[in-house]
Amino acid sequence: MHLTVWTYEGPPHMGAIRVASSMKGVHCVLHAPSGDSYADLLFTMVERRPSRPAVTYSSFDARDMGGDSAALFQDTLRKAYERFRPQVILTAETCTGELLQDDPGGLGKAVGLPVPVVPLKLPSYMRKDNWGASEAFHSLVRGIAGPKAPPGGKRPPRPEGAAPSCNILGPISLGFRNRDDVEEVRKLLDLCGVRVNVVAPLGASAHDLARLGEADFNVVLYPEIADTAARFLERAFGQPSVRTVPIGVGATRDFLAEVARVAGLETVPALDDPRLRMPWYSRSVDSNYLTGKRVFLFGDATHVMACARVAAEEMGFAVVGLGTYSREFARDVRACAEKYGVEALISDDYLEVEAAIEEARPEIVLGTQMERHIAKRLGVPCAVISSPVHVQDFPARYAPQMGVEGANVLFDTWVHPLMMGLEEHLLGMFREDFEFHAGAGASHLVGGVVPRGDEALAEPATAVAEADGDSPSSASGGASGDGAPVWEPEAERELKKIPFFVRGKARRNTERYAAERGLARISIETLYDAKAHFGS
User: Fold this and answer.
1) Catalytic: which of 272, 286, 454, 482?
2) Which candidate, 525, 527, 522, 514, places its Cα nearest to that of 487?
3) Residue positions in the annotated binding site?
4) Contact at 8 Å (CB) between 440 and 290?
5) Which residues of 251-280 are buried (b: 16+ CB within 10 A; e: fewer)?
6) How many CA atoms lie within 13 A of 116 on its CB side?
7) Of 6, 80, 245, 420, which one's alpha carbon is 20 to 30 angstroms from that of 372?
8) Following CA atoms 289, 295, 299, 301 in sequence, which dihedral angle do they give, to the nearest 10 degrees?
């Protein structure tokens, strides 16, 4: 573990809380100090849940560590059962609670509650959030559905004339657009004539998990959460899995084909839904200028690999960088990166990701909320495609990533930042135009009323410098306090005509060129000379 300002994943016990909070009648009891009870904020403020997460903490403090902390945990477990009356209880410990070595699993079984108590071993100093969620879900499936497995894992054939059925595995609380994705996938399965047996963990109960073995196959939407459980069901119940993630038009068609094959259908349904507008938009005149745009992708493995295909094959982007923080899927992501001729970045250090983005010089970033901040600092458009996310990525509206409507949402989400970026660039280029300069009035007002205030009288060069983060004195030719070359106003204005996504590099190269030649001031000629020097 290491201290950091941002983190892509929390500790593994957060994954256990996510699973418990996703389900009905499941409660998680954690052996934890008082300061570890921060999960409520993530669920109520980020996901905007109407109820608090399904977790209870033993909340020991310093004086308890010198006494019987094990008895404190057992007492907390009893009180949690009496208060919530769950069907199943998960027991685990946080990273701090792990140091006490009290064995919550053994302590929980010793209490003798009338409901199953499922112990979780979550190595906080070795694993992360998604792994903890996967382990918790797998433990529940194995403990509740496992005893109903047929001998030798041989399931009886489907009755003649019965419609095929499946389980949808992986949707979870705090997942990126999981709620809406399930609705889109249901529509795709309806198109195939496949009945949905159980969706889990999101919205499922312990009784639902006991029925998992009744389905003919499983649809694994999010491997980070459901891969381990799906492999167990395949061994125990002989259930094959559909693993194509239907993100984008091509993947959605492939998903339908795989469902048809696994379900034993004679024909593959055609994807001719009139709602599918993304292909037309992608071929439209307005989208032509997007061809070849450089894109950098980073996030969880599922979304990064799926979105890389959409970017390259359906949007016409050039993938110049690709990576994930999901180390458990590093091999899959590396294989995906090879297809696009780039080297995969496997890291959970946002500073390393920032350095890779800066080096790749993309024109758009597709990532998490961390990449949104990084791209903003670098002046590059960004769209969020993966957790971790902020409250704005849990919209009240319907906004899936998968299926037909998901393809439309992807196009809007990715193209709009580029469109807005182009608009900002054009405004920057014409900053000194009579309509756009600082003293010009609003274009919708008759006569172009000039705004009051000192800012309206500011010199154009000063306004340019301030917008770019420089002090007015450096832009107007004053002496630089640190001895760095000073930009002349004309050079500053010319710099603003360079596209925003390479402007920072042009500034650094020019200042480096001037410093190496002992130039105290940077003129337009210096800017052009530096461009010729580094472009040769």
Assistant:
1) 286
2) 522
3) 36, 421-422
4) no
5) bbbbbbbbbbebbebeebbebeeeebbbee
6) 18
7) 245
8) 100
Beta strands in 464-516 (DSSP E): 486-487
Whether the per-residue pLDDT at 303 is higher than 90: the answer is yes
- Listed in sequence order, the residues at least 6 apart from 112 whose beta carbon sits closer than 8 Å to its beta carbon are none
Q: Which helix (H) or strand (E) element contains residue 403?
A: helix 403-429
- Amino acid at the residue 455: E
Query: Rounded to whole angstroms, how far apart are CA atoms 87 and 92?
Result: 17
Residue with tokens 């990525």: 393
CA distance linking residue 332 with residue 319, whole number of Å: 17
**Annotated binding site for [4Fe-4S] cluster, which residues?**
36
Whole-angstrom distance, CA of residue 60 vs CA of residue 125: 20
Confidence of residue 153 (pLDDT cuts 50, 70, 90): confident
CA dihedral 474, 475, 476, 479 (to 10 degrees): 20
Q: Taking CA 153 as the corner, what is the angle to CA 149 and CA 157, rounded to the nearest 5 degrees?
A: 95
DSSP annotation of 306:
H
Burial of 152 (0-12, 13-18, 19+ CB in 10 A): exposed
DSSP 6-42: --SS--HHHHHHHHHHHSBSEEEEEE-BGGG--HHHI
Pairing of strands 117-119, 165-169: unpaired
Spatial separation of the C-alpha atoms in residues 140 and 115, rounded to whole Å? 13
Lowest mean pLDDT among 23-32, 65-74, 106-115, 383-392: 65-74
Element (H, E) at 117: strand 117-119
- Confidence label for 477 from pLDDT (cuts 50, 70 and 90): very low
Q: Which of 265, 182, 255, 259 is nearest to 225 (CA)?
A: 182
Confidence of residue 99 (pLDDT cuts 50, 70, 90): low
Place of tokens 């209870």: 56
User: What is the C-alpha to C-alpha distance for residues 225 and 503, in angstroms, rounded to an integer?
Assistant: 41
How many angstroms separate the CA atoms of 291 and 275, rounded? Answer: 24
User: 484-516 pLDDT, tens per residue?
Assistant: 789 999 998 888 877 665 777 788 889 999 999
Q: Strands 117-119, 55-57: parallel, antiparallel or unpaired by DSSP? A: unpaired
DSSP type of residue 313: I
Q: Is 286 a catalytic residue?
A: yes
- CA-to-CA separations, 346 to 29, 127, 360, 380, 528, in angstroms, rounded: 33, 15, 15, 22, 38
Q: Is the dihedral of CA 354, 46, 129, 309 positive or negative?
A: negative
pLDDT of residue 438 exceeding 70: no
Retrieve residue 478's tokens: 């004053």
Q: Which residues are annotated as a binding site for substrate?
A: 421-422
44, 19 contact by CB (below 8 A): no
